[in-house]
Amino acid sequence: MRFDEAYSGNVFICSHPSYEDSQVVLYGMPMDWTVSYRPGSRFGPARIREVSIGLEEYSPYLDRELEEVKYFDAGDIPLPFGNPQKSIELIEDYIDELLADGKVPFGMGGEHLVSWPVMKAMSKKYKDLAIIHMDAHTDLRVDYEGEPLSHSTPIRKIAEHIRPSNVYSFGIRSGMKEEFQWAKENGMHISKFEVLEPLKEILPTLEGRPVYVTIDIDVLDPAHAPGTGTVDAGGITSRELLASIHEIARSGVNVVGADLVEVAPIYDHSEQTANTASKLIREMLLGWVK
Q1: Domain ranges in the chain?
Q2: Rounded to whole angstroms, how far apart are CA atoms 236 and 135?
Q3: What is the distance between the alpha carbons of residues 243 and 241, in angstroms, rounded to a whole number?
Q4: Residue 8 gets which letter from DSSP?
Q5: What is the pLDDT of residues 4-39, one digit of tens each?
Q6: Where is the signal peptide (predicted)?
Q7: 95 in helix, strand or coil?
Q8: Residue spans of alpha helices (H) in 127-271
Q9: Cis peptide before 109, with omega less than 30 degrees from 0?
Q10: In this structure, are strands 64-65 and 189-192 parallel, antiparallel, or unpaired?
Q11: Before 235, cis peptide (omega within 30)?
Q12: CATH class, range 24-288
């Protein structure tokens, strides 16, 4: 993969022109090959970039401007349409290369399965890695109708890979009974329905540890994010999600990478979801990159 040339398409606002001089690499994972309900999240990264032009560069929450963070928008990883196995192999190789270059990866999905190869690659570099997962769904299935490569499985995969006790899920309001039982029996943390208050309790226990944060946009209530593949009523507000991002920023955890997934523009007629995602990424960059 070549990073020495700027992405030729739309880039996220204030993207730094040089890969070499950047601390963070922003990239897209345009894949929705395994979704169980509505496809379209493969178009999410491109639309998030496009609407970012409407953002202010300054965050009044954090009193920082985007120009203070050197991040390079590398564009989308070219993934083979309809081939999930090859796609996740390419994603893992891509992250291996970023980490070898000392970069901090910030990804945009794409369905949630794309987070699995990223987290797997992160665990090779960071042996004490912890995962913070915000989502409407547990994503703890072994398979979906016999298929182990599914957007309903990435958290189960990483939990089994780094031990369930190193995975912390928040905002969960949907999943099979067996998934909740498996988490409880294996020492995995799940906070149902809420994010901010349980997150405040957990963050002190992760202080000093390398943490990867994966956010599924459907952790938000559909009133705040209708443009996603698997909507689920009863979610948190965009205000609470922003506050949660800022709480992580104020904590002592070391965010070594992150992603935001499952934005599906085809269902986002007012562009509300893409605009929200764009602002969330701004706050993640400004809050988590020191």
Answers
A1: 24-288
A2: 10
A3: 5
A4: S
A5: 555 557 899 999 999 999 999 999 999 999 999 999
A6: none
A7: helix
A8: 154-162, 177-185, 196-202, 238-250
A9: no
A10: unpaired
A11: no
A12: alpha beta
* Residue 22 CB coordination number (10 Å): 21
Chain-centre distance of CA 194, in angstroms? 18
Q: What is the DSSP letter of 253?
A: -
Nearest to 285 by CA among 122, 84, 73: 73
Tokens of 151: 């957007």
CA angle 44, 210, 122 (to 5 degrees): 55
pLDDT-flagged residues of the chain (< 50): none
Q: Is 61 exposed, middle or buried (0-12, 13-18, 19+ CB in 10 A)?
A: middle
Which amino acid type is present at position 31?
A: M
């390419």: which residue's tokens?
Answer: 90
Q: Are 44 and 110 in contact (CB under 8 A)?
A: yes
C-alpha distances in angstroms, 209 versus 103, 126, 150, 167? 18, 9, 29, 13
| pLDDT for res 8 | 58
Nearest to 75 by CA among 142, 9, 156: 9
User: 107: which 2 tokens?
Assistant: 């990804």
Show the tokens assigned to 163.
């031990």
Give the pLDDT confidence of 266-282 residue by residue, as tens digits. Answer: 999 999 999 999 999 99
DSSP 186-199: TT-EEEES--HHHH
Over its C-alpha atoms, the chain yields an Rg (Å, rounded) of: 17
DSSP 8-state class, residue 149 = S
The pair of structure tokens assigned to 47 is 């639309």
The H helix count followed by the E strand count for the chain is: 8, 10
Q: Report the distance separating Cα 144 and Cα 128, nearest Å.
A: 29
